[in-house]
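Good morning C.,

I know you're traveling, so I'll keep this short. The sequence:
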Amino acid sequence: MTEKLLEVISDITASAQQVTNDILLLKFRIVNLYIVGEPIGRNSKWILVDTGMANSERAILEEVHKLYGKDCPPQAIILTHGHFDHVGAATELSDYWKVPIYAHELEMTYLTGEKDYPPADPTVSEGLIAEMSFLFPHEGIDLGHRVRPLPSDGSIPGMSEWQWIHTPGHTPGHISLFRKSDGVLIAGDAITTVKQESLLAVLTQKQELNGPPAYFTPNQDEAEKSVKTLRDLKPALVVTSHGTPMKGEELKVALENLVASY
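The tokens, ready to paste straight into the viewer:
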């Protein structure tokens, strides 16, 4: 089973799923990232939310080139936070496209090489991924001049209809992205729709609303507040970094149950 876990973690092949007419999910085995932008075509304006695992850049570029061609870079790269499965290709993609990376101000010290995240705690939850989580990288990354703090007014460069929502707990500067006009929520790791601690759940993608992966969430009190913040937005559709999209009444009930479970 340990070999299977390592195989899952190291898998950097991607599949694409159109979630809405302007959101494309790029699904890797262990993490999702999102292309958000105008209907597909050359000269379209779009952004990339998170960059997946290390060495994911080739798979990401293949999908982007299918959609937009090779001469249509994003407006920016937006990071929900700086864990290893979200920033793996950030340096390479920023340099390739010559575009800035944006993250919350409280995440900056982890993205400029000044601080490391706390190591994973495998004792806080059950499941093989949780048990083996002490093997996961927890070091910060030095993105240098590439990374900038998000505007303090909640706006997101390149995403005029969206706002960022501070959803700490998983990390100090974790953000989620929300579009009020249609209730679409990109939750990052603040909530997940798969039990990320379980290898079986990850392999089968059994849909189940949960909080952030417990083994990498040092502040559960803040995580609980963030879940309530997202519940109060009354999202119509949620897409997460781990799991499959959830919407409608099923999402509403699941969010209420998740809040009640804390």
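Safe travels,
E.
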